[in-house]
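Handout for the seminar on molecular recognition.
Each group receives one record of this type.
Step one: identify the two inputs.
Step two: read the structure output and locate the region that could contact adenosine-5'-triphosphate.
Step three: write two sentences on what you found, then compare them with the reference statements printed after the record.
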Amino acid sequence: MRVLSGIQPTGRFHWGNYFGAIKQYIDLQDNEQAFYFIADLHALTTIRDAEQLKQNTIDAALDLLALGLDPKQATLFRQSDIPEVTSLTWILMTITQMSLLEKCHAYKDKKAKGIAADAGLFTYPVLMAADILLYDSDLVPVGQDQVQHIEVTRDLAQRFNMLFGETLIQPNSRTLDTSAKVPGTDGEKMSKSYGNVIEIFETPKKQRKKVMSIKTDSAALEDPKDPDNCAVFALYQLFADEAQQAALADRYRAGGMGYGEAKQAVHEAALEYFGEARERREQLAADPDTVHDILAEGARKAREKGKEVLDRVQAACGLGTVP
Ligand code: ATP
Ligand code: MG
């Protein structure tokens, strides 16, 4: 089975990216044919500085490798190394109804937050569909916010098949129940573009400051608190085992524990959890050639598959020289 997922190099990865998506990438790489890519074409809708985008892309690769992505098991590549994906995007665009894209939350949410919407942001789900369909992907591990885009991908594959005959595979999404929507410091979905993230590899001092800034209600120290409606508790759950979670929940409900103490517990648990990955990241960063080689080899493998599927698509709709 082909597993595929992409992640944008729009900034350094955060706890939401890890627990919603990257953790799944790593869990799935052992047993499935895994393709993971750094979505630099998507990031171009946000980042308009060449050096920055290049650097972010390398940082993204380093982060993924440090977190446990194994290039011997999974294919890791840069989206823009596979030009076939933009050809497929155009083909899909010609069968995409405007109303389908107008319904998409990512676009609607960003627009509502005042982030300027260009055609790139609006058509982002079509590029995403091409990313998935180009490699005959069966399963796409993502956070909750991307499930709708996988539905769009399924719709487009089905529509293409209806118009041109059975050509594209309809993929399924995969989310984790416990971490499909990790909250940020403001309690909303943690998202690079919302300025509410806690980065995985931030310095401990900066990370502590962010954790301490998590928004909570104004309950006094002695008041009982509700673990089910608290971003601090939700984040603690990501790092703690069941017994630790139950213990903190009891203390919340009993009152007498302040949010400051709970935040400190989150901070310490996170440092412990990502401790080894931090060390690995430093080692990897000292050897940039290896990362470049991994991305080049990944691109070679991904492109081979991508060409095969694009040929099939072009043949189905009468494009190109393929019979
Ligand atoms: P941007 O704000 O630039 O869109 P992002 O933080 O949303 O960045 P993406 O690159 O869009 O990150 O998403 C990468 C993966 O991480 C996707 O599978 C997405 O569903 C997942 N993800 C992002 N934020 C969260 C979150 N808060 N909780 C769970 N999963 C998340
Ligand atoms: Mg996003």
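Reference statements: The pocket of adenosine-5'-triphosphate (ligand 1) is lined by residues 7-8, 10, 16-17, 20-21, 46, 142-143, 145-146, 179-182, 189-193 (CB under 6 Å). The mean pLDDT is 95.
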